[in-house]
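Before a computer can learn anything about folding, someone has to put a protein's shape into writing. The outcome of that step, for a single protein, is printed below:
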Amino acid sequence: MMIRNLGWIFLKLLAVSIVALPTSYAAVYKCVDDQGNTSFSSIPCPTKKITGDSEAHKLWKELKAFSTRGRLIVRTIGADVESIKACRIRSNEFKEDLAVLGEKVEKLEQEHADIRRAYRALQDCGVCQARGMGQCSKADRLLNSAKNALVEIPEKQPPPWVRKRWKKQ
């Protein structure tokens, strides 16, 4: 009798475990290539590269490097006094190096407002405080927005099989 009950219990546990198996979900990425064609994939889209050599392009690359550097400063701070002192030294060096880019940022045209706002966010990015990481994230968002403006996306052409409507003359 006891063996029979154990068999039923085992069977019930097996049924519950099969039903409770986690289902797998896959992310789907929508990608647009250089010609404007859309495709869907399970792997992330390749990132668009900044290839221009204008002042805005160069400045974007420099500010992106500062964003990474600011995040490292914020991440390396610890609770001990020596860590805080070292963080303040790195933070001051970060601010001095960033200040050199200030003149270049102010000379940019109005169309690159996101680069200007990213520069202001980066000024608080490399601080040895909790708000530093939030400012680095804000700078990254603004730099990504600026990147979209800098990367030229060609006008999408209709596929060759689409016929144009004939206008009556």
Summary: The chain has six helices and two strands.
